[in-house]
Write a structure and sequence with these properties.
This is Alpha/beta hydrolase family protein. This protein has eight helices and eight strands, in the order E-E-E-H-E-H-E-H-E-H-H-H-E-H-E-H. By secondary structure, it is α/β, with parallel strands linked by helices. The protein has a single domain, classed as Alpha/Beta hydrolase fold, catalytic domain (Rossmann fold).
Length: 265
């Protein structure tokens, strides 16, 4: 039998080196991981976790990914944020938390790791709903984002609502559908925010059952047509969770995509 692709969600990972707060709420924090080796200072990589913005999923499930990135020489921050089902989560708290964290974390990390991380705008690595949040941050606060690697992102909230992804997850985030809260979709949906200035790579598996690859195909086509610097890497036979699993066949291509953004930075 093949291994359960969801196993990465509960796989143990080394503890982070530090946890820092970017706000007063207990979930306005990030776990920092020092890069392996003795290389030069690099821009921070901020990992934005998925879980359809819901409270039952937190940053811990990105531990294996974050540890692997640190092992490859990247300074890493695993960003936490308030989520739907929590006080202050959903609209607009989930979104404003990510904007604040992304803006504050490079300075917080550089204070603690001055020889290993620069204060430059970070590269965001967002998975699933975290991919949406990374695309959103780059669109509305481009000076705070140096690049985006979006892994199976929910790149079109209106389409995700129509498809009822994760049984109403988008409506839970924004407080309704596009007909009920159109201004919120206009403000938060990456599909409504193109073109963007930030170099972006989307990686998506062809057999993804949680976030269909068609969402990324349509989004990238529209974003390119509008003038965005964006590309799509589609991985045949890859499902949703392999993109965050350092033990998966997809992992080398995820690293290659991140390196391409780092080289452009």
């Amino acid at each position: 039998m093949p291994a359960d692709p969801r196993a990465v969600l509960t796989r143990p990972a080394p503890e982070p080196d530090r946890t820092v707060a970017y706000g007063d709420h207990p979930d306005q924090v990030a776990d920092l991981r020092l890069p392996a080796g003795n290389g030069p200072a690099r821009p921070l990589v901020v990992v934005v976790h998925g879980g359809f913005w819901r409270a039952e999923y937190d940053r811990r499930h990105t531990g294996p990914l974050a540890a692997a990135l640190a092992g490859s020489g990247y300074p890493v921050a695993q960003l936490e944020y308030r989520r739907t089902g929590q006080p202050g989560g959903g609209w607009p708290g989930t979104l404003t938390d990510v904007l604040t964290g992304v803006a504050e974390l490079p300075g917080l990390a550089a204070d603690l790791m001055p020889d290993r991380v620069t204060r430059a705008a970070p590269i965001l690595v967002g998975h699933s709903a975290g991919g949406h949040l990374a695309l959103y941050a780059a669109a509305v606060a481009p000076t705070t984002v140096g690049g985006v690697l979006a892994l199976a992102p929910v790149a079109d909230l209106a389409e995700a609502y129509r498809r009822d992804l994760d049984s109403g997850a988008v409506a839970a985030l924004l407080g309704g559908g596009p007909a009920q809260v159109p201004d919120r979709y206009a403000a938060a949906d990456p599909r409504s925010l193109v073109p963007t200035q930030t170099r972006t790579v989307i990686v998506h598996g062809s057999t993804d059952q949680q976030v269909p690859v068609e969402i990324s195909r349509v989004f990238v086509t529209a974003a390119r047509a509008a003038g965005s610097d964006i590309s799509l890497v589609e991985l045949p036979g890859c499902e949703h969770f392999g993109l965050i699993d350092p033990e998966s066949e997809a992992w080398p291509q995820v690293l290659d995509a991140l390196r391409s953004l780092q080289d452009d930075h």
